[in-house]
Specification:
heterodimer, A: 338 residues, eight-stranded mixed sheet, six-stranded mixed sheet, 25% strand, B: three-stranded antiparallel sheet, 3 strands
């Protein structure tokens, strides 16, 4: 049972508040079989007008574990109508012929695709960069890109090749974004309690300062084949959701000071709902069990007004036109309006 | 009192802002050495060749089907191989440039921060495979992650050509054609 608590002192106004903080690594034996929708218990509030999405990584095996989890995703969608998915890389393992795209992506997620769910992919170390051209990954031909949904800006990065050009773009995009929420997603985790890989310290050195300076609220990564919610690092919430197809059982270091919650005994995916200043999350297994859930508040945003820095809450985003050439064109698809 | 709080807040935030590195323009914009200039010119020439060959093909758009992406890549690779039938190691990564690149890599993998830089490269290195010019990068081989700090030091390559490691070899990979453009063997010591 996860405890919920809030802190209301002055300091906490400067910190993101996580309304689910008891550290735990779940280790129940999970059912390998996907379950029916009515068996899933969702705790997400499902408020009118909220931004709803799914997060999953390291999916592209085409094997039964991926397909089983995909069926649970479909069942979950029957109760929580998420509109898009963030893919955290390693979207296709091995060869990438047309038949591989079918087997490792289209077939497992056909029901979601048929329902109009959009997949926004980022590239992992097992992915060919030419996935950027694939229509169903919505990358618009770019290895790194951004898109906006209501008051949330998403930034997909290519962590396998963090070139100076990409860093420059990332900084400019983050700087110019005035949306209430900034969420980054990419493959390699900046913080991780994984035994196989662990934190990508080199990537952290270059990205974390940007995330801190420009008010990133949450970061999702894969690469590690388990689920982990990290304790907030410099006011930013980090999640690893890398068990969408692959799994490395027992790889999560027990007793890690970084871990707030984790699960490495089965496949998992995350459901996210952003409403106002709150991000609600719930992590589900193939068997429909909840291994983590909670709510976090967005960071206070720093806005620059006429050269001075002023701490203020930024209101709802105005224009849907992104200035970056790597932003999804404002054709009405990515910018969702009621 | 309010004014005092305001002053303290502005000073604190300004100090914090100045302390955070900005990466815009952090890479050296200074002139390269003649050897590196030569290397970059060769890389550009390769790019011109590849682009001219690509014009013969129907390009997949940004919302392509997998079969189109695959067909384009295979066809482009064949055209490039045909046009570079006599290509050999050192044609792009010329020996003089390799000497300088070796020094850059040495500073990265033996200097401060070497431990994490090496860990980054090694942690998901593919099983070693024989690197040959014009060969396709194997489908079942993951790519090594190049430390961002190293990419800041290495000469910036033209679009769609990237550095990767295969063991201690540095390769140039054309990601559009998925072929190895050139290879500098044993240039990076990871031990």
């Amino acid at each position: 049972m996860i405890k919920l608590h809030k802190r209301f002192d002055l300091l906490s106004l400067l910190l993101p508040v996580v309304l689910a903080t008891e550290c735990s690594i779940s280790a129940p034996a999970d059912r390998d079989e996907p379950i029916q929708g009515e068996q899933i218990e969702l705790s997400l509030p499902q408020k009118a007008g909220s931004v709803r999405f799914m997060v999953v990584g390291d999916t592209g095996t085409g094997k039964s574990a991926q397909r089983g989890l995909a069926r649970t995703m479909e069942a979950a969608r029957g109760k929580f109508a998420f509109e898009f998915v963030l893919m955290l890389g390693d979207n296709l393992y091995g060869s990438e012929k047309a038949s591989d795209y079918r087997k490792k992506f289209e077939e497992p997620y056909q029901p979601l695709l048929d329902a109009g769910v959009k997949f926004y992919a980022s590239l992992g170390n097992h992915d060919e960069p030419q996935q950027r051209l694939y229509e169903q990954f919505n990358m618009n031909g770019e290895r790194f890109y951004s898109f906006k949904v209501k008051n949330v800006k998403f930034f997909a990065l290519d962590s396998t090749y963090m070139s100076p050009e990409q860093l420059k773009w990332t900084e400019e995009e983050l700087r110019s974004s005035n949306e209430d929420w900034k969420i980054c997603f990419f493959h390699h985790p900046l913080y991780s309690s994984g035994g196989r890989h662990g934190s990508d310290v080199e990537l952290r050195k270059v990205l974390e300062p940007l995330f801190v300076q420009y008010g990133v609220d949450a970061v999702f990564a894969g690469h590690e084949h388990f689920y982990e919610r990290l304790k907030p690092q410099k006011e930013i919430h980090y999640f690893i959701s890398g068990a969408g197809g692959k799994l490395r059982k027992g790889d999560l270091e027990r007793g890690s000071p970084l871990t707030a919650a984790g699960f490495d005994q089965g496949q998992s995916f995350m459901l996210i709902e952003i409403s106002g200043d709150e991000m609600h999350f719930q992590t589900l297994t193939t068997g429909g069990a909840t291994v983590d859930k909670g709510t976090l508040l967005r960071r206070e945003k720093l806005t620059k007004t006429n050269g001075t820095e002023d701490k203020a809450r930024v209101g709802a985003a105005g224009s849907s036109n992104d200035s970056s050439k790597r932003a999804t064109p404002s054709n009405g698809e990515a910018s969702r309006t009621e | 009192m309010k004014a005092q709080i305001w002053r303290i807040t502005v000073i604190t935030l300004t100090t914090f802002g100045l302390a955070v590195p900005s990466f815009a323009g952090q890479k050296s914009e200074g002139k390269h050495s003649p050897a590196i200039e030569d290397f970059l010119e060769r890389a550009e020439k390769y790019l011109e060749l590849r682009n001219s060959l690509e014009k013969k093909l129907k390009k997949p758009g940004d919302r392509a089907k997998p079969a189109e992406i695959r067909a384009h890549q295979l066809a482009l690779a064949e055209l490039v191989r045909g046009a570079r039938i006599d290509a050999k190691e050192g044609d792009v990564l010329c020996p003089e440039a390799v000497k300088e690149l070796r020094q850059i890599l040495k500073s990265e993998f033996q200097g401060p921060g070497a431990k994490t830089a090496k860990a980054t490269v090694k942690e998901n290195a593919p099983q070693p495979f024989e690197c040959k010019v014009n060969q396709s990068y194997p489908a079942d081989a993951p790519v090594t992650t190049i430390p961002p700090s190293l990419l800041l030091k290495l000469p910036e390559l033209p679009d769609h050509i990237e550095y990767r490691f295969v063991g201690s070899n540095l390769i140039l990979r054309d990601v559009k054609a998925n072929i190895i453009v050139d290879c500098a063997r044993g240039i990076a010591s990871m031990s």
